[in-house]
Amino acid sequence: MSDHITEYQGSATMDKITSLAKRRGFVFQSSEIYGGQNGAWDYGPLGVELKNRIAGNWWKEMTQLHDDIVGLDAAILMHPRTWEASGHVENFTDPLVDCRKCKTRFRADQIPPENLAAKKCPDCGGDLTDTRKFNLMFKTHIGAVEDEAGIIYLRPETAQGIYVNYKNIIQSNRMKIPFGIAQIGKAFRNEIVTKNFIFRTCEFEQMEMQFFVKPGTDVEWFNEWKKRRWAYYEKLGVRMDSLRWHQHGPDELAHYAKDAYDIEYLFPMGWKELEGVHNRSNYDLTRHTQYSGKDLQYIDQESNNERYIPFIIETSAGLTRTLLMLLCDAYDEEKVISEKNPGNDEGNARGETSHGTGGSADDWRTVLRFHPAVAPVTVAVLPLMKKDGLAELAQDIRSGLKEDFATDYDQAGAIGRRYRRQDEAGTPFCVTVDYESKENGTVTLRFRDSMEQIRVHKDELAVRLYQEIKAYRRIK
Ligand code: ATP
Hints:
Elements: H1 14-23, E1 27-29, E2 41-43, H2 45-64, E3 69-71, H3 81-85, H4 88-91, E4 93-98, E5 105-107, H5 113-118, E6 132-135, E7 138-141, E8 151-154, H6 159-163, H7 166-173, E9 179-188, E10 203-213, H8 218-235, E11 243-247, E12 259-267, E13 270-279, H9 283-292, E14 298-300, E15 306-308, E16 311-318, H10 319-330, E17 331-336, E18 363-368, E19 379-383, H11 390-402, E20 407-409, H12 415-425, E21 429-433, H13 435-440, E22 442-447, E23 453-457, H14 461-471
Parallel strand pairs: 3-9, 19-20, 19-21
Antiparallel strand pairs: 1-2, 4-5, 4-6, 7-8, 9-10, 10-16, 11-12, 12-13, 13-16, 14-15, 17-18, 21-22, 22-23
Bound molecules: adenosine-5'-triphosphate.
């Protein structure tokens, strides 16, 4: 249902996001010189910083801010029985149809039901094949011989690595229920349709947290985690009217799920899943008990050594999909009416002085309004001029900030143009070094969102930046 809504309030379109991502080195097509590899993308200098920061922010949220959650980094390759136990070998399939005429391949659940019923292609009207099941797991072989015994899968979700380690973690870290295990890592799915840039890819990253609870408390914990995940996006400064909940109906529920909600985001192509919050019941641990022969019951010392298989509440977000969401959410284009020129107290809206803003009153700027906690570069240091020792002073200031912040340095071109470059990369703060800086040690601190400029002593910059990051509120 949600797939067909296409309204979008922001000014981002998928084309604009894709081209900005390439132009500024966020995301490149994989193996582009060979014509590209379907479903795979490479993260360039700004993209990898953004991705690492999103991951770091999520990790901090889950582990540092929750005393009852610990981390894990499990291998991508797991014993093949894992995927039999999890139900993926049998059930992790998408329904597939092909058009006999134009040869386009569709996921049967993603085309209008009337086309499916009439077996008519939604693109060209040609005949569709019968629906058949297609397993999304990538299968390969381990060892020198390519036989049945060597079959191994690339994991389609990170969660199973958590389940098979849950007893290890209880024992090594003396965890008591309720507790959670968080993990970030690659997952692979042989997706039938990989369109919309990095939205749906064959290789992607997930940020998953599995929370182990006593049966009977699962509904309460499920609601609690729904609240926490909603609050997380609010804290990240996401436009909350672009987020909504979608509950899975009976025919959407995965084989393991007792209840499931998705957090959907209004992407340029419509409302789409960003994260799943699932009540996975005791399905996974029960199945691993059966398939491994190991007793995975929890012994509850606080409840007369009662034994039970915990229920699991899962929060499952795509890291790369969150990156796309943040690119879309942060994207803005606006008319720049007045931007003061550092080192000139009267300011000059039109950039007509020798160190002008490099634009006219009618300039448009593209700005990525990332929260400073995830912006690829936190602060850029810009000397107003290269000469008269300003470049050296700016480099010194940058060196002083490097230990604590992700910094950039740019001395090329008019200052206004340099601001635009930083706006487009989503850098929340610029520090401009001018002649006054040489005299009294003050610099201009310029804010990306408001374009406001204030003077700060260079020795107070780091503390000021910390305060600004903590106090950051999105204004638009
Ligand atoms: P869909 O039904 O859209 O294929 P799903 O419901 O199977 O997705 P989950 O298994 O719940 O997705 O995966 C959890 C999260 O992992 C998703 O919310 C999404 O953010 C991310 N994710 C899943 N598949 C992909 C993919 N192919 N590319 C990028 N991210 C993905």
